[in-house]
């Protein structure tokens, strides 16, 4: 049975949904820990509610193949960029300078992975650069840890995109193999039908009319030619060879 369209990518979309839920839980844990250090704690709470709602919407949307298109992909990237860019105000630059994590943390990698699964390495790289650029723009100081996060995000986009394209290629090859197998079985069935009926009739006509004069002999000759042509056609598929016992007797009788 052929797999449904995008069947090999389904586990990747499910893994993405699990990742977003896990990363959201991590964001919530950090928010509880650093609540007293935020410049606008209530704004942080509202932003987390937005993240929770968007995580649920993307989990539902990406679960449907028809929704895995540009509108949802662009909206996903836009929401995450908005959350990242809001970090300096809701968290506070002074808090960020003391080492308080940004609001996105690992959660902001969600659209990068979504773009990679949907479009491969190139889309994943583009999304990673956009999200990483927004994240760097919110930081007061850019150190080694900041660039490490950017590199990890780029690697995630490239690797996941590569795996997604491999899955799509494997699915296409499987589909072609299934179609080829079905076509081969149909040819085998037709070849058996030709052997069991047409070839035997043609062999009988040629054997009976080979020694007759006039049009009967010509008809026997044409029957022999058609028998040879059909036999050559059936040999292209792995069908059983035609026994045609009369044909062998006729050939042994020839000088």
Name its key features.
single chain; 255 residues; mainly alpha; 2 domains; 76% helix; 0% strand; disordered C terminus
Gist of the model:
With 255 residues, the protein is mainly α. It contains ten helices and no strands.
Produce the secondary structure layout:
Elements: H1 10-33, H2 41-62, H3 70-85, H4 87-91, H5 93-97, H6 110-119, H7 121-137, H8 144-209, H9 215-234, H10 245-253
Helix pairs in contact: 1-2, 1-6, 2-3, 3-6, 3-7, 6-7, 6-8, 7-8, 8-9
Overview of this protein structure:
By secondary structure, this protein is mainly α. The chain has two domains: 7-172; 186-253. Helix content is 76%, strand content 0%. It has ten helices and no strands. The chain has helices spanning 10-33, 41-62, 70-85, 87-91, 93-97, 110-119, 121-137, 144-209, 215-234, 245-253. Helix 6 (110-119) runs parallel beside helix 8 (144-209) and helix 7 packs antiparallel against helix 8. The two termini are 53 Å apart.
The number of strands is 0
**Helix content, binned percent:** over 70%
User: Quaternary status of these chains?
Assistant: single chain
Overall pLDDT metric: 84
Terminal Cα separation, in Å?
A: 53 Å
Pairing-aware structural class of the strands and helices? Answer: mainly alpha
What are the secondary-structure elements, in order, as H or E? Answer: HHHHHHHHHH
């Amino acid at each position: 049975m052929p797999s449904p369209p995008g069947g090999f990518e389904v586990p990747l979309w499910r893994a993405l949904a699990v990742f977003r839920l896990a990363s959201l839980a991590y964001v919530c844990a950090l928010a509880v820990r650093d609540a007293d250090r935020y410049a606008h704690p209530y704004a942080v709470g509202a932003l987390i509610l937005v993240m929770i709602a968007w995580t649920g919407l993307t989990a539902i949307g990406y679960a449907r193949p028809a929704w895995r298109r540009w509108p949802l992909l662009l909206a996903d990237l836009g929401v995450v960029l908005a959350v990242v860019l809001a970090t300096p105000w809701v968290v506070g630059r002074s808090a960020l300078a003391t080492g308080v994590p940004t609001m996105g943390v690992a959660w902001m990698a969600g659209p990068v992975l979504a773009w990679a699964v949907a479009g491969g390495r190139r889309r994943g790289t583009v999304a990673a650069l956009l999200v990483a650029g927004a994240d760097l723009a919110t930081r007061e100081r850019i150190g080694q840890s900041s660039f490490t996060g950017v590199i990890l995000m780029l690697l995630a986009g490239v690797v996941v995109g590569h795996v997604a394209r491999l899955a799509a290629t494997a699915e296409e090859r499987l589909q072609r193999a299934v179609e080829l197998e079905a076509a081969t079985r149909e040819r085998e069935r037709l070849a058996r039908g030709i052997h069991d009926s047409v070839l035997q009739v043609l062999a009988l006509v040629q054997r009976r009319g080979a020694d007759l004069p006039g049009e009967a002999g010509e008809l026997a000759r044409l029957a022999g030619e058609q028998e040879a042509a059909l036999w050559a056609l059936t040999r292209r598929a792995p069908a059983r060879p035609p026994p045609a016992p009369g044909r062998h007797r006729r050939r042994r009788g020839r000088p």
